[in-house]
Write a structure and sequence with these properties.
The chain has helices spanning 35-49, 64-72; strands spanning 2-6, 9-17, 20-26. The chain is α+β, with helices and mostly antiparallel strands and 89 residues long. The protein is globular, with a radius of gyration of 14 Å. GO terms for molecular function: acyltransferase activity, transferring groups other than amino-acyl groups. This is GNAT family N-acetyltransferase.
Length: 89
C-alpha cells in the first residue's frame, strides 16, 4: 500500500499486489494539481527498482481521467475493462 500525503493529510492511496496495482484513489480536493502524475511515477519507479519488469493496473474503460494518467506514465492498453454493478436493497 502506497499513501500520498499532501498538506498533512492523506490525499490518496495505491494498493499493489506484486507488480499489479490493484486499487487507486485520490481525494477530489487534490485532483487537478499534478500530484497523481508525480505519485504514480514514484510508485512505478519503486516497483521497477524492486525487480519487476512490468507494472499492470486495471482501469474501467469509462474512466477517461485514469486512462489519460496511465498513458502519460507509459502504460499501454490491451483490452477494455467493463464494470457491472448491481444494487441490492
Amino acid at each position: 500500500m502506497y499513501g500520498l500525503y499532501a498538506e498533512g493529510q492523506l490525499a490518496g492511496f495505491i494498493g499493489a499486489d506484486g507488480n499489479a496495482l490493484a486499487l487507486a484513489a485520490l481525494a477530489p480536493a487534490y485532483r487537478g494539481r499534478g500530484l497523481a502524475k508525480y505519485w504514480w511515477r514514484q510508485v512505478i519507479a519503486e516497483l521497477l527498482a524492486a525487480g519487476h519488469d512490468t507494472v499492470t493496473a486495471p482501469v474501467p474503460a469509462a474512466n477517461a481521467a485514469a486512462l489519460n494518467l496511465y498513458a502519460t506514465q507509459g502504460f499501454t492498453f490491451r483490452a477494455p475493462l467493463e464494470i457491472y454493478q448491481r444494487v441490492v436493497v
